[in-house]
Amino acid sequence: MGKTIPLLTDRAYERIKHDIICCAIAPGTEVSEAQLCAHYKLGKAPVRMALTRLAHEGLVRAIPRRGYMVTAVTLKDIQDMFELRLMLEPAAARMAAGRVQAQRLRALDEACRAGYQSGDAKSISRFIDATKAFHVAIAQATGNLRLACAVEELLDEMTRLLHLGLGLRNRSQEMQHEQRALVKALLRGDGATAERLSREQIEATRNMVLSAILTSSSVVNLAITTAGGRAGI
Fold first, then answer.
1. Distance from C-alpha of 206 to C-alpha of 47, rounded to nearest angstrom
2. Could you tell me the residue range of the domain that residue 106 belongs to?
3. pLDDT digits over 43-82, tens only?
4. Could you tell me if 195 and 184 lie in one domain?
């Protein structure tokens, strides 16, 4: 019995977090413990502990006597995270040029070419995972483990932003074209071009995410609504 609650808490945490990150539960959505228990078919104790963990991570915040709200994605969040990407990843691409493992990079690039379907959370998740692995591999090729870890953690944190942007517009063809050019520059050891292409790709992704966030009606439509029209589970 002692092991049951932690296991159920982990399950509740993983499922709720997944739905928040994938925007199945949209930013700004209010939820209650009772709603979450019913939706995920879990007890109150594991759901409550899962929400405590998610609040600690900044994904939800408690609203006294009402429940919880999924934290909004702000323009400051977007600005800060993309600024950090622009500091780290172009420099990593320059350092990795000529040092990447060609076979591994081509395999990761091939995985990204599958693309995704707008509005299909599963295909978007697969695409985001593939592109994340691609960019982390570039950072790892620098030989700087701290840099690689920083890039990986930052891309993990950006997953929700990418779901918002990719869910509203299919940009996979453009991203694949940008990525192929980056692969060629990395393999021929052209650090200056790799750095420039990495910067351009990040800036294009930032513009896509900003466009999605500013299209407020589209963001609202990502929420699961109840019969009464209130955003919820």
1. 34
2. 75-216
3. 999 999 999 999 998 899 999 989 999 998 888 888 999 9
4. yes
